[in-house]
């Protein structure tokens, strides 16, 4: 898996996936806090490729939280 990963990726409830350029396979590159790799594996329909540089997803900035809470989900349908 020595290929550089392409962005943008896919953001899920468990983490962030990016794509391998040649094969377009997804690779888990970030895992959200409070989520374990086992939880990711248990919720995948197939084997998950994990980046050797897997890191924790950084917390959202105040500006990102504002956009989420005030513009994307003003009725607070999704907690958080």
Explain what this protein looks like in three dimensions.
- It is a single chain.
- By secondary structure, the protein is an alpha+beta fold.
- The chain has one domain.
- It has helices spanning 37-42, 62-72, and strands spanning 6-11, 15-19, 26-31, 49-56.
- Strands 1-2-3-4 form a 4-stranded mixed sheet, with no helix packed on it.
- The longest helix has 11 residues, at 62-72.
- It starts with 5 loop residues before the first strand and ends in an 8-residue tail after the last helix.
Can you summarize the main beta sheet?
Answer: 4 strands, mixed
Please indicate the percent range of residues in DSSP E strands (runs of 2 or more).
Answer: 25-35%
Q: In total, how many beta strands?
A: 4
Determine the N-to-C terminus distance: 34 Å
Principal-axes shape call: globular
Structural class: alpha+beta
**Domain unit count:** 1
Helix content: 10-25%
Arithmetic mean pLDDT: 87
What is the chain-wise order of helices and strands? EEEHEH
How many DSSP H or I helices? 2
Radius of gyration: 14 Å
Sheet with the most strands: spatial strand order: 1-2-3-4
